[in-house]
Design brief:
Elements (H helix, E strand, L loop, with lengths): L2 H27 L8 H7 L2 H15 E2 L2 E2 L6 H16 L2 H18 L3
Antiparallel strand pairs: 1-2
Length: 112
């Protein structure tokens, strides 16, 4: 590694450390009476769902390193069927069971 590479690595480490320290200490440094506006509070309720979708969506929508909305995408078909079951029955455990069962059947018994 050259001197420039070492310098860049040191700057990156300190920069990431500073960003981490600032974002982690944000809630400790704000006054006790600090409150977000109602609009921001309402928007923050969706943050966990958005984070989970950001992790799960690529594995459902991408097949062979490309977005696949076709009927050959077994994970997408299982997700759509599981979502329909959830809308119909409002039961999370049933949705998970149906989704996993449909995906397993499609994966094992079809040559799509």
């Amino acid at each position: 590694m050259s001197l420039f590479d070492h310098l860049w690595l040191i700057v990156a480490i300190f920069g990431l450390g500073a960003v981490t320290a600032i974002t982690r200490s944000f809630f400790l440094l704000t006054p006790a009476a600090f409150e977000f506006s109602p609009l921001i509070q309402r928007a923050l309720r969706y943050a966990p769902t958005c984070a989970i979708m950001a992790v799960i969506a690529p594995s459902i929508l991408m097949q062979n390193h490309a977005v696949d909305f076709s009927w050959h995408n077994k994970a997408l078909i299982a997700t759509l069927i599981a979502s329909a079951v959830f809308v119909w029955k409002q039961n999370l455990m049933l949705m998970i069971a149906v989704g996993m069962a449909v995906f397993t059947v499609l994966r094992l018994y079809t040559s799509i």
